[in-house]
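Fold this sequence, please.
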Amino acid sequence: MITPKSEEKVLPISIPKDSPWQRLRAYFQRDTTVGYLFISPALLLLLTLVAYPFCIALYFSVSNTMVGVPGSFVGFRNFINLLHNDIFLQTLQNSFIFTSVSVFFKTILGLALALLLNQRLWFKKFIRGAVLLPFVIPTALSTLGWWWMFDSLYSVVNWTLYHLGLLRSPSELNWLGTPYLAMAAVIIVNVWRGLPFFAISILAGLVAIPRELYEAAETDGAGKVSKFFYITLPLLRPVLVIVVLFSTIFTLSDFNIVYVLTRGGPINSTHLFATLANQVGLVSGNIGEGAAISLFLFPILVIIVYFQLKMIRKE
């Protein structure tokens, strides 16, 4: 009769506590190490897609590099030349007008739309989803639709105003061929596209306000106007500051809307920093001056971000 062999006991392999493997294992089990590992992909993307191009732009801005021609160091000559360039000074003025007017109307209309969406409405979820459509549609595609609406011959806007009796002829207004009307057109499109971002963000802030505050105010006899100015607006102020901050950055660096609608015309009346940098740096081939135009926006954004973050800290 065959008897099975007795099972051999396998002794666990003991690793000395001071071995390199144990030290490495203990290192990767630390919370700080795990945290650095989690943020390393985002850090890598920032270094490759933001920091590296920014450093390259800094190098180009202080050189006279042209397309296909390596340049030499010229210091701040490109920036000094820009301050004596009439087109750039007009672009600087255009950028501030475009940004301030657009952000103002987006704030007012976004707050009004958020208050409306916060009410009890039929098909509320469907309406909230439909409000996001201008923000979801690709910018170039939606701007092409507006380009057709502002066309000098087939303008839907002009025909509507004509049938309402506000114009004497359907071709009276040349939206994209008149400087002031062209600026108004790009502002209208920017407000239309950025309005959902304001409305949804402010709506999130409205939902977070406790209802008990409104009930207590009603008990004290406060009306709708008093509740808005003494409860809603003060509690929405941090949200408004953040939304205005991001919108200001996005609006100042806008490119697609102006490029599709006007290409910066007529007579450079709608040029922004991004469109002028594209024309000078890529179309004309003067990479050094184009990089200087794009970097001219950087200190302006730093100042805006500093003051708005200072307001947030006070809140």
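The radius of gyration is 29 Å. The mean pLDDT is 84.
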